[in-house]
From TrEMBL:
Name of the protein in question: glutaminase
Organism: Ziziphus jujuba (Chinese jujube)
Reaction equation(s) it catalyzes: L-glutamine + H2O = L-glutamate + NH4(+)
Family under the similarity heading: Belongs to the glutaminase PdxT/SNO family.
Cross-referenced InterPro entries: Class_I_gatase-like (IPR029062), PdxT/SNO (IPR002161), PdxT/SNO_CS (IPR021196)
Recorded superkingdom: Eukaryota
Gene of this entry: LOC107411338
Amino acid sequence: MALVGVLALQGSFNEHIAALRRLGVKGVEIRKPEQLENVGSLIIPGGESTTMAKLAEYHNLFPALREFVNMGKPVWGTCAGLIFLANKAAGQKTGGQELVGGLDCTVHRNFFGSQIQSFETELSVPELASKEGGAEFYRGVFIRAPAILDVGPDVLVLADYSLSSKELDSIAALQAQNQEENAWSGKKVIVAVRQGNLLGTAFHPELTADTRWHSYFLRMINDVGEGASSSIVAVGAESQQKEQSRNDLPIFQ
């Protein structure tokens, strides 16, 4: 029986595992290339993308991650994980960072600014609501978040975000300060996409009580031919009860 892997180098991997557990599914921490052989899908969590990239390089994970993506196995990247999956990244530090690639898009790292520019907002998510039910809006938690500047023709846009005049001025000033070439200009950015076996979100669904994005990802596993009965390990009722009794996660209602 395959497992849902969660890359556990740094960042919010525990929160993703907890969200899967709330859905009755077991996630397993992945830190070494050989561990990918035991899972049929993978979540790359949010965190500090440069640190995660350095740790992934140290553990020689990039070749195995690229092979995993190229094999068509479902992979979901949130925040820093989205940066990992992008074919191109803008706003990089000097020297940049290594990418896994696969998503035909350009992601701007830390698009919204520093930690103090983190925010929450309601996102229109008609595709998510159609597949998973519930409201047509989702509370997105953006923490030092990236944004998707453009996508290729095969990429399905699942959510975008319209910027206020104040945000536009702040981003323009930040780009000028960083002396970015070909600086982005526009009034909205993309914050969630899907391309085949790949899912990317610029925000953190694992930090909310709404598990619909996790359900959507589990549905993707089934879409690529891995039936839920044979590809996902259910958590025992006792483990679920223990998790529900915990209250030590930063879950936003």
